[in-house]
Hints:
Layout lengths: L25 H19 L6 H4 L6 E6 L5 H12 L3 E6 L11 H9 L4 E5 L3 H10 L4 E5 L5 H14 L8 E5 L4 H12 L3 E5 L8 H13 L5 E4 L2 H5 L4 E4 L11 H7 L7 H6 L7 E4 L10 H4 L6 H21 L7
Parallel strand pairs: 1-2, 1-3, 3-4, 5-6, 5-8, 6-7, 8-9
Helix pairs in contact: 1-6, 1-13, 3-13, 6-7, 6-13, 7-8
Amino acid sequence: xxxxxxxxxxxxxxxxxxxxxxxxxxxxxxxxxxxxxxxxxxxxxxxxxxxxxxxxxxxxxxxxxxxxxxxxxxxxxxxxxxxxxxxxxxxxxxxxxxxxxxxxxxxxxxxxxxxxxxxxxxxxxxxxxxxxxxxxxxxxxxxxxxxxxxxxxxxxxxxxxxxxxxxxxxxxxxxxxxxxxxxxxxxxxxxxxxxxxxxxxxxxxxxxxxxxxxxxxxxxxxxxxxxxxxxxxxxxxxxxxxxxxxxxxxxxxxxxxxxxxxxxxxxxxxxxxxxxxxxxxxxxxxxxxxxxxxxxxxxxxxxxxxxxxxxxxxxxxxxxxxxxxxxxxxxxxx
Length: 334
């Protein structure tokens, strides 16, 4: 979701905030994915960071506001900022007192005067919206409880690379929990021509807002379909891409035994994939960290697995977003 703001002084200012992919147009989403692929080519060329890229944000500060711990997200965000010559500054929950001894508004007003953008990995969606409300520099959602847009851009890039540059006509099967990852991934897939079948237990509710947005896309494009079912085999039928995520998110560790019982029968195995009659050339994806109860070793480490390429691609997704929102100030034509 991109938001446009006005500065508190009354002067018009229009940063582009990446909150989710829901309000991204098909063209904007496609541009971010294409840019991510181009940055990947630059980095993998082995020629080092081109000077013209490294000078784009030279002397600028990129804040990493993380309420939740992270491995991949911190590494990729710092790497993406450094690629453009910016100085990344990590602000973990123990490093600053956001909303503790002073209001969020007071804290972010100070950040505003010092940063060119903020990557925010927070607990609640409302925290992201609070930042967007008070800041007129780009806010990039690096994860909240409702959305995970950088992961969706990453996954679309990974899918395109694995299927010869195409997305149209493919089918993605999601087996597992209803969470922030599938919220953004489902919308992104549908916008770029990938049908989506989500399999979740009867006791789990899929976000009604995402269902409504998915139906809007399907109504406009009869070449794609979207469904939420309970049986994993149903979702797997003719699936080209099979995706899952952790069942036990940060802060839910005490619910582990209850969760394992709730998701019994949802572990992705070769047997389950065969029972569901997935496409013979199926690919498996997982945004990590992975736990054996979600997918067994045979699938996770198989030749069909894209998980480690997918993990690397998050770096290039972050680069694409910085280039579009910060370097080019929201102008996707550049």
